[in-house]
Design a protein that fits this description.
The protein is α+β, with helices and mostly antiparallel strands. It is built from four helices and five strands.
Length: 149
């Protein structure tokens, strides 16, 4: 949109970075904040990996806690999860079941909020810059047209 309105490729390219900060921050902040606020910490042992020995990039780890096997599984999408069967990890689990459980090390809502605020601030600054640039260009065009008549 910035490219079309102000014919400025550099503004359009630069706007991608804060857009990613806003996207990632807004999508990941709410679940992590919920886990941080009301999550229950448990130390669990990984007993099985559904993708072990296959070329699959979707791992589902079966977890056993102090009270037995959990109803939920820890999911990882990627080729190298960093978890192995037999590892003991600390997880955060939502007692209401609204948010999937996560490794406690990965839950950091403050950094997600920081990214979201940074993205919004950068986009606001770029919008003001684009508006000022458009105002200056229109004013220059009016002067150019008034001098030729």
């Amino acid at each position: 949109m910035l490219r079309l309105l102000h014919r400025a490729w550099w503004l359009a390219v630069l706007s991608v970075v804060p857009a990613l900060f806003i996207l990632v921050g807004s999508v990941q902040y709410a679940p992590e904040a919920a886990l941080d606020r009301r999550g229950v910490r448990e130390t669990v042992t990984i007993t099985a990996d559904s993708a072990a020995g296959t070329a699959s990039k979707n791992h589902r780890f079966t977890l056993v806690g102090p009270g037995g096997e959990l109803d939920e599984t820890l999911e990882y999408r990627g080729s190298n999860p960093g978890y192995r069967v037999g590892d003991r990890i600390e997880i955060l689990r939502d007692p209401e079941g609204a948010v999937p459980l996560e490794d406690a090390v990965d839950v950091d809502p403050e950094s997600r909020l920081g990214g979201l605020v940074t993205g919004v601030a950068a986009w606001t600054g770029m919008t003001l810059l684009a508006g000022w640039r458009g105002h200056v260009r229109r004013r220059e065009n009016r002067r150019a047209w008034s001098g030729t008549i």
